[in-house]
Write a structure and sequence with these properties.
The protein has helices at about 5-45, 45-60, 65-75, 85-110, 115-120, 125-155, 170-180, 185-220. By secondary structure, the protein is an all-alpha fold. The chain is flat, with a radius of gyration of 21 Å.
Length: about 220
């Protein structure tokens, strides 16, 4: 292990890890919002809305993420839609995550007894406050573990945007070991940094589960 090389290139890898964290945060935020919208549309709107959402999730989940990146970055310019590498990568990751989040949220929403929704609407509470105050808080608990699991997948999937030259952690690692021929040191540090980022999400899950358990205990 060449520790001098690791020390010399560590600032570049840390900067790239920050870029990976930024891409992940933007993709997770966008996918969460869109996924919740699609889940509510599929659950609450008509048959055609449900069919459209189901078709979208089928298409996204049934094709490789790498193919989706190539379609957006290389195929869309032929239609006159040109995106720089960074926004293209974030957009594809967010849209890909949306399909998975939508199914996670839809399954969680189905755990809420329909009678509670009907009772809230019957006493005059509008649909949106009903979702925000009654349905979504209850659906949050069953959705948390698969949501965090999918978010960790999003973090790891950021490595794929290196193929369109987004200078995130994997792209920077490849650049370093291509010039130094020190694969073990470079990939080893990159692996530790990826593990650090994903561990943030795992710690958040544990913290939230403890808070939920504590709140239920106080209620009892």
């Amino acid at each position: 292990m060449n520790w001098a090389l690791v020390w010399n290139y560590l600032p570049y890898l840390l900067h790239a890890a920050g870029m990976t964290l930024l891409i992940s945060a933007m993709a997770i935020a966008g996918g969460t919002v869109l996924g919740l919208v699609l889940a509510l549309a599929r659950s609450e709107l008509g048959r055609w809305a449900g069919f459209t959402v189901a078709a979208y999730t089928w298409l996204v989940r049934g094709t490789p993420l790498l193919l989706q990146i190539f379609v957006v970055y290389y195929w869309l310019p032929g239609l006159g839609i040109r995106l720089a590498a960074f926004p293209a990568g974030v957009m594809v990751l967010a849209l890909n995550a949306t399909a998975y989040y939508a199914d996670i949220f839809r399954s969680a929403l189905q755990t809420v007894p329909p009678g509670q929704i009907e009772a809230a609407l019957a006493v005059g509470l509008p649909w949106l406050p009903t979702m925000r105050r009654i349905v979504i808080p209850q659906a949050f608990v069953p959705a948390l573990p698969p949501y965090i699991g999918q978010s960790i997948t999003v973090v790891k999937n950021t490595s794929l945007v290196s193929v369109i030259s987004v200078q995130e952690l994997m792209f920077t690692s490849e650049s370093i070991y291509s010039s130094t021929y020190r694969v073990v040191e470079t990939i080893g540090v990159a692996g530790v940094l990826y593990l650090g980022i994903t561990s943030i999400l795992q710690v958040f899950q544990i913290w939230m589960e403890h808070r939920i358990h504590a709140s239920k205990t106080r209620v009892r």
